[in-house]
Design brief:
iron-sulfur; two-stranded antiparallel sheet; 227 residues; 2 domains; Endonuclease Iii, domain 2; Endonuclease III, domain 1; 2% strand
């Protein structure tokens, strides 16, 4: 088992430092050209790979360009355009109704506050954080997706299970200037080395400070289950 640093603040800082060296070009992988496209891409990415979303949004963004386009699109037509995306019917409904609200209440502009964004259908705190950070350059939280959730628990940065509680723990220990980048570093490391189904601890730059490291630990702290 790796040995975490003495405090969680020290552990978080060391994790950021090592992962920055490992993934110097880490950034958001969704493709978009404006705030509306970003919002829609993030809604679509829930329980779906970014790669799949990027494939489907090429044609989607060429067909629908404004909030009005989405709001006026028939449900079946929009759902059909998203048919390769997980939960495409629900996501089509979220996008249509969110765009209706953007047109009716925000003059056709994607809002720039957490409260207004999370008031849109299909938009939770995670989605809102992504839109604020990459669409409005506003960083007021940490995006907790499945990779961040898994790695934070494996690395002993939190014992919480739910994203909003994990976010609060991370905001208290991750250096302020790295709140946005922390998510991308975790995503890259989660995809490359520390996946949900297995962890390549021998190739991991964090193994010596990870309390879940397979060499000695019998438990995956992310799931609480044996390796």
């Amino acid at each position: 088992m790796g040995t975490p640093l003495e405090t969680r603040q020290e552990q978080a800082a060391e994790v950021v430092d090592r992962l920055e060296h490992e993934y110097p070009d880490s950034t958001i992988s969704l493709r978009y050209s404006n705030r509306l496209e970003l919002l829609i891409a993030v809604i679509l990415s829930a329980q779906c790979t970014d790669e799949r979303v990027n494939q489907e949004t090429k044609e989607l963004f060429a067909t629908y360009e404004t909030p009005e386009d989405y709001a006026n699109a028939p449900q079946e037509e929009l759902a059909d355009a998203l048919s390769s995306i997980t939960y495409y019917n629900n996501k089509a409904k979220y996008i249509r109704t969110a765009c209706e609200k953007i047109v009716d209440e925000h003059d056709g502009e994607v809002p720039d506050t957490m409260a207004e964004l999370t008031d849109l259908p299909g938009v939770g705190r995670k989605t809102a954080n992504v839109v604020l950070q990459h669409g409005h350059d506003v960083v007021e939280g940490i995006v907790v997706d499945t990779h961040v959730q898994r790695l934070s628990r494996r690395l002993g940065l939190t014992e919480e299970e739910y994203p909003e509680r994990i976010e609060q723990d991370l905001m208290a220990i991750v250096p302020d200037g790295y709140w946005q980048q922390f998510t991308h570093l975790c995503i890259d490391h989660g995809r490359a080395v520390c996946s949900a189904r297995s962890a390549d601890c021998e190739a991991c730059v964090l193994a010596d400070i990870c309390p879940s490291e397979k060499g000695d630990s019998e438990i995956d702290l992310a799931s609480g289950e044996p390796w």
